[in-house]
Amino acid sequence: MFCGSSFKNKGVRLLLDAVVDYLPSPIDRGIAVGCDIHDAAKAISRKPSGKEPFAALAFKIINDAFVGQQTFVRVYSGELPAGSYIYNPVKDKRERIGRILRIHADSRVEIDSVRAGDIAALIGTKFTTTGDTLCSEKEPMLLENIHYPETVIDLKIEPPSAKERDKLSAALHKLSLEDPSFKVHFDDETGETVISGMGELHLEIIVDRLKTEHRVDVQVGKPAVAFREAITQEADSNYKFKKQTGGKGQFAHIEMRIEPNPGLGLEFLNHIKGGNIPKEFIPAIEKGFRASMEKGPYSGYPMVDVKFVLLDGSFHAVDSSEQAFKTCAQLAIKEAIKKAAPHVLEPIMKIEVNTPDEFMGEIIGDINRRRGRIDSMRRFRKGSQKINGSIPLMEMFGYASVLRTVSSGRASHSIEFLQYSPLPKSIEEKLLTDLREKKAAANR
Q1: pTM
Q2: What is the pLDDT along the chain (444 residues), one digit of tens a residue?
Q3: Quick one: which of 309, 328, 312 has its CA closest to 320?
Q4: Spatial distance between the Cα atoms of 277 and 252, rounded to a whole number of angstroms
Q5: d(Cα 74, Cα 103) in Å, to the nearest integer?
């Protein structure tokens, strides 16, 4: 453990010397292992040497007012000169690197090239986002991506005027590039912009950055829990989409089945053999499936953990099209979901509370009243206990101020996302009733 203060520049040199003395160098870390871009099971390794093919991981993006977008990379192998081209296999795009900067706190030093073991900022990337691999075009590979948990809280925001809408959109795009755990989407039905993040504090910081860094004085609604939908049983659909007009009509026919897919996300399987549906229409059916999952028909929340199995179908030589099959898939899924016993899922958070002994009873009682569950309690220093458990996010709004009041400001807590779990039936019914009333009011 090292003590110091970066503000007073005390202990900083000691800490940096310790990094050099105690932490492993790139050579000590050894070979970096990735996979083939066409076959994830095939491993590819790179030695930490400048003579190997180039491979790097983009781990952070910062938008600077003076130099534009800076893509921070950690180079695992090879060498990259400024002005050269590299390949992004995640986006399947070619990138040209204009300049390379070495960052020293708030100052930048332009360098000619970056080699294995270096960390630097690249200027000029257009398509790269956090977690992408950058590599040699001739010998591509994929390094392990950075995985982020699902967003658990939503917030509706509006620009102060219609003129500021484009400015807000540009600012949100930059912030979502910098922070992949932050999401933005536009609700077509209500015409509102919705931002999603990891918690109340996360979104408070985003809103503050919009106001201070990007000069957009947004109006903010109340935070809302990011629910999800899932199905609990298999269901099938044999759907024929037929639309005849004066000219060319539309025709598509699919037989499909949906199944629960716990913990494995969305999955599309094609079991058609013999060309009953031409191969060129299969991607359109998958697009229809994934588009339907963005807004579930049961409650309007995104659907998760669903497996779509395409079993059979037919087509018309003249009237069938990609759009017809996409629409047919969406209507078939809507029909199948009604028979698949859908339900609403709520985010459950892992909670840790550090509290003096005398407040244990009140804090545990409060967690239980909030539908929480205590998993363990242990003493972590004399007179204090650490409580670990889980609690629904929808019961956590305003918890920080309640905890301060109960413990006279002496207890502290932290939460992180754990999992999605089914919402109790009584709460689900009330939620669906509120959603229906809100939709009816909007239509009026």
Answers
A1: 0.69
A2: 899 998 888 999 999 999 999 999 888 888 999 998 888 888 999 999 989 999 999 999 988 877 888 999 999 999 999 999 999 999 999 999 999 999 887 788 999 999 999 999 999 998 998 889 999 999 999 998 887 777 888 888 988 888 888 889 889 988 988 888 899 988 766 667 889 988 888 899 999 999 998 888 888 888 888 899 999 999 999 999 988 766 678 899 999 999 999 888 899 999 888 778 998 999 999 999 999 998 888 888 899 999 999 999 999 888 889 999 999 999 999 999 999 999 999 999 999 999 999 999 999 999 999 999 999 998 877 888 999 999 999 998 888 889 989 998 898 888 888 889 999 999 999 988 888 887 777 676
A3: 328
A4: 9
A5: 13
Q: What is the spatial distance between Cα 210 and Cα 201, in angstroms, rounded to a whole number?
A: 14
2 C-beta neighbours (distance < 10 Å), count: 11
* Residue 309, H or E segment: strand 306-314
Helix (H, G, I), strand (E, B) or coil at 216: coil
CB atoms < 10 A from the CB of 202, how many? 18
Cα–Cα distance between 312 and 320 in angstroms, integer? 15
Report whether 55 contacts 76 (CB < 8 A). yes
Dihedral in degrees, nearest 10, Cα atoms 6, 8, 14, 16: 30
Between the CA of residue 443 and those of 224, 281, 437, what are the distances in Å? 21, 35, 10
E strand or H helix at 346: strand 342-356
Beta bridge partners of 413: 353
| 76 close to 134: Cβ distance less than 8 angstroms | no
| Angle formed at CA 45 by CA 41 and CA 51, multiple of 5 degrees | 150
Positive/negative CA dihedral, 288, 294, 295, 298: positive
Q: Which amino acid is at 326?
A: K
* Cα 150 from Cα 301, distance rounded (Å): 13
Residue that the structure tokens 């990011």 belong to: 226
Rounded Cα distance between 85 and 48, Å, is 21
Of the chain, the end-to-end C-alpha distance in Å amounts to: 62
Phi-psi category of residue 177: left, alpha or beta, with phi > 0 → left and psi -120 to 50 → alpha: alpha
Using an 8 Å Cβ cutoff, are 414 and 380 in contact?
A: no
